[in-house]
Amino acid sequence: MTKTPCLSALLAALALSACHNGAVDYPKLLPTQQILAEPTLPEHSGEAAQDPDSTQAETVARAEALRRKAEALNAPVIEPATKARMTEVSAQ
Q1: Which residues contact 76 (CB under 8 A, 6 or more apart)?
Q2: pLDDT: which is higher, 82 or 11
Q3: With contact defined as beta carbons under 8 Å apart, do 41 and 49 qualify?
Q4: CA 86 to chain centre
Q5: What are the DSSP calls for 28-56, one per residue?
Q6: What is the pLDDT of residues 31-75, one digit of tens each?
Q7: SS3 for 26?
Q8: CB of 71 within 8 A of CB of 63?
Q9: Residue 91, CA distances (Å) to 27, 77, 79, 86, 88 in order
Q10: Integer angstrom CA distances of residue 57 from 29, 46, 54, 64, 65
């Protein structure tokens, strides 16, 4: 008999999920040829298309800079001298 509350809750959830105000837009369907077409670069990526090596180098440099920043964030938050003082005070 424990399945009855679960079944009731499931049916209620299904009924509520079917209710909407009709304002939901369905995605636009695309022709198969357009879906299967080879991807193209957007217009704003002209520089990357002209010089992909430079763009790759800039991307790698930026990634390295972000990695260095992330490593810097792993440093201790409390300086060792301050931590030692805190430990002394809490031990008293």
Answers
A1: 83
A2: 82
A3: yes
A4: 38
A5: PP--HHHHHSPP---GGGHHHHH-HHHHH
A6: 999 999 998 878 878 887 788 888 899 999 999 999 999 998 888
A7: coil
A8: no
A9: 64, 21, 18, 9, 5
A10: 38, 16, 5, 11, 12
